[in-house]
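User: Thanks for the earlier help. One more: Ribosomal RNA large subunit methyltransferase J. Can you show the sequence and predicted structure together?

Assistant: Of course, both are below.
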Amino acid sequence: MLSYRHSFHAGNHADVLKHTVQSLIIESLKEKDKPFLYLDTHSGAGRYQLSGEHAEKTGEYLEGIARIWQRDDVPAELEAYLSAVKHFNRGEQLRYYPGSPLIARQLLRDFDKIHLTELHPTDFPLLRNEFAKDERAKVMKADGYQQLKSQLPPLSRRGFVLIDPPYEMKTDYQDVVKGIQEGYKRFATGVYALWYPVVLRQQIKRMTRDLQDTGIRRILQIELAVRPDSDQRGMTASGMIVINPPWKLEQQMRDVLPWLHKVLVPEGTGHAKVEWIVPE
């Protein structure tokens, strides 16, 4: 369908959670001197103007990144993520929000590799232009799920795969599981992080059961809800499912998630949780 545009939602509570987890994984992988591949299957445009028509129409970033980026009590777990956001915003005005490709670009080292794919005809040229001068990066107009077959395992045998589809189609909830299976068959030691929205809880329960049925071990679930589950239209929560999480990630998210929930959801609704779908 390719109708989804992340520019309407950039910097919302779901982005804050996703990019917090992303930055913590990258920082953990950087603790070893060996290079690694960052593979982003659904990259989007890369950079989003928060004063633009789309972001202004929804104002979702006002209840997301805008609530935390200038606070003086930010936990250490958020420092890498917020440093990347601040890099694209000189001074105190929040003008731009970096998507996952630009956060990766900011945090990765000179010898790491970046592989990005995007199919949307408007977003792809924007993404390509962002990385035109980055020798570490390969940007393709291609199916992100296919990259889990063609690009894995990386030559370095170290890698982080972010899977962040738009969930326009109901089949996306099954396709992400199939994609992870394909990648895992080729590269069982990689770190895989899957973002998901909670619109209907039953879809997430089914997806997690399907992941359990793959036989893959070490699957961690991290979720932040701003409202209770509902059968009404709209996203009430979002989460990250991480396969082979770095050993520190579970505790890091247990430490920072209550703070994020308190700041992003001052009315106290919803929930925050970190739990294993499949342990060791």
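User: Great, one quick takeaway?

Assistant: The chain is about 35% helix and 20% strand.
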